[in-house]
Amino acid sequence: SLETIQDDDELAAATWFKTYYLSGDIISAMSIKNNLVDLSQYNVIWIHIDKENGTGEIPLIFKDTDVISRIKNYYKDGGNLFLTNHATQYITSLGRTTRTPNIINAGAAANSTDVWSINPNIGMTNNYSAHPIYSGLSITNIAYPYTTIPLLGAGLKENHNCMWDLNIYGYTENVVNAFEKENSSRIIGTWGQVTDYCCAGILEFLPTPEFKGNVIAIGLGSYEWNQNDKTNAYQLNIRRLTTNIFS
Questions:
Q1: What mean pLDDT comes out for the span 47-62?
Q2: Which of 35, 65, 147, 219 could form a disulfide with 163 if both were Cys (CB 3.0 to 4.6 A apart)?
Q3: In which region does residue 244 sit, left (phi positive, over 0), alpha (psi from -120 to 50) or beta (all else)?
């Protein structure tokens, strides 16, 4: 319930969701464990975990075998998942990949004067700017000599990344191509300042014969639902990105 959510970003996300998706439900992991909810009634399940705990560890209830089993079965049967911030790690808990996010930040907010954005042009060769999740989002060419999509303005920011450094897996070919081929996935967004193939910040795990649902995972620290000291100048982009992903 909204009343029990303690983290400011989780609460902001849940409050927005209940305001704009009146037919949507907020359900607890405990209700999934106790088999009190029929997950098959949902087109998509959004798991948003954003912890200021120093480690990025997700709550223990999500590691419960019954919870994992029921969400995995939902996913295998064609249910769609949207995993954000520290919840991107859940893709390995579900058995979809063995590649766990390895760039993880979960500290307190600090001041930053720059704008944090998404570069949808991976390695400046795989351009996903026309991907439906980016439809209608504002863009900028101020910080870099190429187009990025701003998500978080100057001010106090928590920098809660939970994404993939593709250079640590020992791939002998282009690391993006290797990861995508190995995991039946597409890397469709990275940090705004990155122009090489190093990092995967927004991923689409495509349906497979075993896992028939679709997953979009956002592990970028710029996906912050409540800027600590002010209203985020680019909050509308966060909202539009989220509704585009639901669509």
A1: 95
A2: 219
A3: alpha
